[in-house]
Amino acid sequence: MKIVKTYVIPNKVKELLENYSFTNSFNRILGNPKDVIEPEEKRDYQLIIENSQNDRKTYVGTYDRYSLPTDWGDFIKDITNIISQEDEEEIFKSSVYNKRLRRKGEYIICGVFFEGGYKEYNYLTDDESIQVGDEVEIPVGVDNHVVKAKIADVNYYYKEEAPYPIEKTKKILRKV
Q1: Residue 113 belongs to what H/E stretch?
Q2: Has residue 124 got a pLDDT over 70?
């Protein structure tokens, strides 16, 4: 499934856009490696910048770390400082634009904390939508009783780099 969103940038950002050097800042896009696994919910972007001289530049790609211009984070911080909204749109969230896509052969391993716990435990998942802060149900102990935990981090590892043997790592059952 492909998600396409259009954002109209408010007038109060106009001055920032007029003074921003898009030709220098936005021409560096690294691009994802050829072996990334396309997520089911793919976020594409099309950014059209037009200045007062009617010069128009269009940027397109997937909305993730390596398909956005390398200066995207700085650009979004500048806009966020101007807008200062309480409820930020997805376009302004670093957890979205800084996310890299999983590569072939990589496993998704999440660090979880139990309520009131202090130690982080690793669990596998196939759910690409799991994010830091999500609550999940996981099997615990030798009897695999189900408890709730909170996602502390989400990382991608090849089997040989995993923090715990993949064969022995339990799987997240579901998001709560």
Answers
A1: strand 106-114
A2: yes
